[in-house]
Amino acid sequence: MTLTQEQIAARYLLINALRSGEYPQGHGQLRSPEGFCCQGVACDIFAKHNDRGYWSTNHFILGHKSNYYGWNDEVMEYFGVNRELHEKLMAMNDRVSRKVIVK
Fold it and tell me: What stretch of H or E contains 66?
């Protein structure tokens, strides 16, 4: 998959946000009282930089779609992420979060 310059820039925004400490890590859903999964951070970045989408408690709303645990197609396109990578990111985030919680 070849990324556009906009997708590369969006990924840098996401990486910087994940490293910033502004988003405590959560798991199992995009956003919860404990924090955000990596995909929830991506939804938040998408909303802030596109003036589209908003949060309703732990659901990310974009157009007529509500997402609780994953991205919709428009957010995936913004970051240049296909369905396979989307699933891997979700699994990695939740697996790491569970290890941290158990310790």
Answer: strand 65-67
Contact 71, 81 (CB under 8 A): yes
Distance CA(84)–CA(11), nearest Å, equals 17
User: What does the pLDDT read at residue 71?
Assistant: 73
Can you give the residue ranges of every domain in the chain? 25-102
- Record the pTM: 0.81
Q: How far apart are CA 75 and CA 33, in angstroms?
A: 22
Do 80 and 7 contact (CB within 8 A), yes or no?
yes
Q: How many CA atoms lie within 13 A of 102 on its CB side?
A: 6
Tokens of 23: 């988003």
**pLDDT over 60 (residue 98):** no
